Amino acid sequence: MGSFEFKSNSPEDTYAIAKNLGKLLQKNDILLLEGDLGAGKTTFTKGLAAGLEIKKNVNSPTFTIIKEYNGRLPLFHMDVYRVEDGFEDLGIDEYFFSGGVTVIEWAHIIEEQLPPEHLSIYITHDGDHNRKLKFEPTGERYEALCKELFNENLSD
Ligand code: ADP
Ligand code: MG
Q: Quick check: keyword Magnesium in the entry (predicted)?
């Protein structure tokens, strides 16, 4: 299965790429965000929220684990960085197919609880302001989504 790479040179770039993705999202989509602290996972989620027409400011949900926002579709934003036991019942499966978009920062920590089909996004530092965003789709829906996003950005 192919992967798709974007370069970002600023927080604004990361936000804009995510906003374009946010516009293409459909109910029950699941996005997994991976990357070190400060990589830009929350910045990316803010862009997604804009693409979903969410007006409220999106902040890191580290202490609450799950935050919910209303836009064109509901957004369920999770950060599982502090979860120590990957098998702990967080009740997250109730969100997955409830008609919204689920975004999980540090998703690999709860690997065992994730649906098999999803879009993984790996953000890596590449200097101070440069980031590499690698999109890895699993499943037809997410491959189609990546192709749509990638083609749009090529023609920009
Ligand atoms: P995470 O959620 O992965 O810990 P955040 O999005 O909270 O990361 O923070 C990313 C930090 O890196 C922000 O302070 C942001 O301004 C900065 N930054 C610098 N360059 C970029 C970039 N190209 N993309 C995203 N964030 C960037
Ligand atoms: Mg974060």
A: yes
